């Protein structure tokens, strides 16, 4: 992704870069200062003043992000969106949360060129002064966004001023409790919330995976959706039903199960209600996929569970695989699904009989080419640098030469590109040129280069190379071990007796052959 110009030109008319340089030097002095010479009261005052400064800097950072957005700088620099720019370029840890702060406290530029007042002006003023921090702002916004829209405007203004004032003196947890009391005061009979409010607040989020590949599902359901979900759980989440740990557990709805088998399974069921709800949702989604209710294809890929696994991980039966939607799945689950003969769950070999070369006969990539593209290194995401859009959200881009200019629809000429980056390829300044490396360590990978101004030196080509976490970890582990336990130069290196066995066994090309190869190695030891 294009890098910003780190050097401030002499023609700059703004004093902000110089002020930030002064502040950076001042922070160095503060960091080097001796806190032990402060009295207890002085140390408490210093900590309070520093937190206030942090809050003020956060607000100023939001101003700069808003200005960047107004000028469309992220797109000009080749980023997919403002969120993508904040994540990659500014290193913002939670762009969604920062954007919510900006939407509530920022001054947006109108079509007339004038800047509008913030959505919550009193809260914005407190944030500007550093009297409230990010957590206070978030808790206040959560309450204010639930104020009924039918409430008269003056009452909405008073509610915002009241809660913002409370935020100056209370903790975020206290703001939430006090805000609920404020809502009860505004609408004691619950008559102001209508269907428009419910439609505005409905949402469902599938959050990022954690270190255990688990994901948190959060949302607000309208009454109809809640009622439908409750009915589904009532008939699919009964004790004994859809239990993945019990091979004799009936699947589907309660009415489809044998009563005696269901009773016996219920007696063996030790799951909590929450776990049964989870397993019922899994079973329902499997049934939806099996019945084909989601359609046959999505962006050229089959609507199935598509998984890419490393052959070495399959041999070891450890590690994680990648799905076409960008999620990670433990190898143990991959092997279990392979035993169930799920479609498009495969290990891609070096050669394939699928037609992948079409020349000029077709413009759009085939399903076989989409699957082969996903299986390539880094094929699970858009090929543009810094982009993380998964394979189910990308198109196939003629990376070597545009189809309209004579490009061929061959797998070696195609690369995954999300719709926004695909539309950003062109010959204009600020657009992207693309190509494919034919030689060197990046052979076969797609490079992207942002077009520079006429007469300016060309920007360097970049690739969207995903970090090799395993190799990086091994490198640091070796360094740590060498530092803590340096080798004795008098001791010869150990001899690995079974090394020749792994070299003589041909590489397996299926899950079954991988497991057989592993057993062969274990028996020979």
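Q: What amino acid sequence fits the structure above?
A:
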């Amino acid at each position: 992704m294009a890098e910003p110009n780190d050097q401030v030109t002499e023609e700059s008319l703004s004093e902000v870069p110089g002020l930030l340089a002064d502040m950076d030097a001042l922070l160095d002095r503060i960091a080097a200062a001796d806190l032990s010479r402060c009295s207890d009261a002085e140390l408490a005052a210093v900590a309070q003043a520093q937190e206030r400064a942090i809050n003020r800097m956060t607000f100023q950072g939001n101003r700069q992000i808003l200005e960047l957005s107004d000028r469309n700088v992220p797109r000009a620099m080749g980023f997919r969106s403002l969120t993508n720019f904040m994540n990659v370029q500014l290193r913002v840890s939670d762009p969604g949360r920062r954007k919510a702060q900006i939407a509530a406290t920022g001054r947006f530029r109108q079509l007339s060129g004038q800047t509008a007042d913030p959505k919550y002006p009193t809260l914005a003023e407190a944030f500007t002064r550093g009297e409230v921090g990010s957590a206070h702002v978030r808790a206040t916004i959560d309450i204010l966004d639930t104020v009924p829209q039918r409430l008269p405007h003056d009452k909405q203004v008073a509610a915002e001023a009241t809660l913002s004032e409370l935020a100056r003196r209370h903790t975020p947890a206290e703001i939430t409790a006090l805000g609920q009391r404020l809502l009860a005061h505004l609408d004691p009979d619950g008559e102001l919330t209508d269907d428009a409010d419910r439609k505005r607040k409905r949402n469902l989020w599938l959050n990022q995976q954690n270190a255990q590949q688990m994901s948190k599902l959060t949302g607000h359901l309208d009454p109809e959706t809640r009622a439908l979900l409750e009915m589904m759980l009532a008939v699919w989440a009964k004790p004994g039903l859809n239990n993945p740990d019990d091979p004799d557990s009936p699947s589907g709805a309660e009415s489809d199960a044998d009563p005696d088998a269901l009773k016996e399974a219920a007696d063996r069921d030790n799951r909590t209600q929450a776990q049964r709800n989870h397993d019922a949702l899994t079973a329902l989604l499997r049934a939806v996929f099996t019945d084909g209710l989601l359609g046959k294809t999505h962006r050229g890929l089959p609507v199935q569970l598509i998984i890419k696994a490393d052959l070495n991980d399959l041999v070891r039966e450890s590690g994680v695989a990648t799905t076409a939607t960008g999620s990670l799945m433990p190898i143990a689950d991959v092997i279990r699904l392979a035993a169930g003969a799920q479609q498009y769950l495969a290990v891609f070999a070096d050669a394939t009989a699928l037609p992948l070369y079409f020349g000029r006969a077709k413009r759009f990539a085939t399903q076989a080419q989409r699957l082969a593209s996903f299986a390539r290194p880094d094929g699970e995401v858009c090929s543009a640098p810094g982009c993380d859009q998964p394979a189910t959200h990308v198109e196939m881009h003629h990376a070597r030469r545009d189809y309209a200019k004579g490009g061929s629809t061959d797998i070696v000429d195609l690369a995954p590109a999300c719709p926004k980056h695909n539309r950003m390829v062109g010959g204009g300044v600020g657009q992207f040129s693309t190509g494919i490396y034919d030689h060197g360590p990046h052979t076969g990978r797609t490079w992207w280069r942002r077009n520079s101004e006429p007469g300016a030196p060309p920007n360097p080509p970049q690739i969207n190379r995903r970090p090799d976490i395993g190799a990086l970890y091994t490198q640091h582990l070796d360094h740590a071990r060498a530092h803590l336990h340096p080798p004795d130069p008098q001791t010869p290196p150990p001899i690995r007796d079974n090394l020749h066995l792994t070299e003589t066994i041909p590489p397996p090309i299926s899950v079954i052959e991988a497991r057989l190869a592993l057993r062969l190695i274990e028996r020979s030891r």
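Q: And what stands out in the fold?
A: The longest strand covers residues 203-209.
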